[in-house]
Amino acid sequence: MYENIKYEVKGNLGYLTINRPKALNALNTEVLSELADALKEIEADDAVKAVIVTGEGKAFVAGADIAQMSKLNAVEGRAMMQAGHKVMNTIDQMPKPFIAAVNGFALGGGCELAMACDIRIASSKAKFGQPEVGLGIIPGFCGTQRLSRLVGKGMAKYLIYSAEMINAEEAFRIGLVEKVVEPDALMEAAEKLANTIASKAPIAVAQAKIAINNGFDMDLKSASQLEVEATTVCFGSEDQKEGMAAFLEKRAPEWKNR
Ligand code: HXC
């Protein structure tokens, strides 16, 4: 069904793989359009409790497609950026957890895709960077904003102005990734985390994502009120009754996602 990505569901997990290994999984307009379609599938499928995003071959994603972008005028470039923003923002705003399993190069739009995910686990061979200024542009899939929010303004400026590529260990040190594992252990680590999250109350995980992501850009007073509202949604759910009853009855909870 898709030509440039793969989307599979196994158990409770969705697997979204960028699949253009000959071009190091560069994001062209076709990939972005297929990602937008796959995200609609993911959003509509209640059985999918967590999603792992990765790349086929030696790269996660080596950026937006430079061959395609080289021919774009300002209007066309803007349309491509909007398509990229739509994909990144859909991942960011969808109330399901996304884990980036960063298997190799995560550059430019690839680093931006990883940053749009909730949590990043990297292979020790992964490389990160925002090389855009070397191409005459700037990060255009929200990298100027997400990178500074993740690692701070100073480090974001260091990485974006210098276009320096950093390894997984440095990415971990600055808070760009949450965990680094040996290459062979990457998918296992991502699946272990995804399954752990999938075993929790889906409505609670969803409300936690809403509270963290939407609250991050608010003042503390508004954000704390958002947390009150999100927790109230949880208290109104059957799963809150089930989770607490299961604890008291010393048994495993059975989530209903309502
Ligand atoms: C198109 C790409 C590509 C890209 C790699 N390829 N990255 N094609 N767009 N972003 C292609 C190469 O042209 C080559 O094709 C093949 O993939 C293998 O790449 P090599 O360069 O031969 O591999 P290697 O020597 O291992 O070097 C890997 C690399 C290098 C360091 C990742 O490919 C690289 O620097 N790529 C560009 C990274 C980059 O600048 N990304 C940011 C893009 S801008 P052939 O046909 O020769 O085999 C961006 C902006 C986002 O992302 C938002 C703006 C709208």
Automatic annotation (TrEMBL):
Domain of life: Bacteria
Keyword Protease recorded: no
Keywords, sorted A to Z: Lyase
An MF annotation (GO) of this entry: 3-hydroxyacyl-CoA dehydratase activity
Pfam families noted in UniProt: ECH_1 (PF00378)
GO BP terms in the entry: fatty acid beta-oxidation
Substrates-to-products reaction catalysed: a short-chain (3S)-3-hydroxyacyl-CoA = a short-chain (2E)-enoyl-CoA + H2O
InterPro entries per record: ClpP/crotonase-like_dom_sf, Enoyl-CoA_hyd/isom_CS, Enoyl-CoA_hydra/iso, Enoyl-CoA_hydra_C
Subunit structure: Homotetramer.
Family that this chain belongs to: Belongs to the enoyl-CoA hydratase/isomerase family.
Name of the protein in its database record: short-chain-enoyl-CoA hydratase
Organism from which the protein derives: Hornefia butyriciproducens
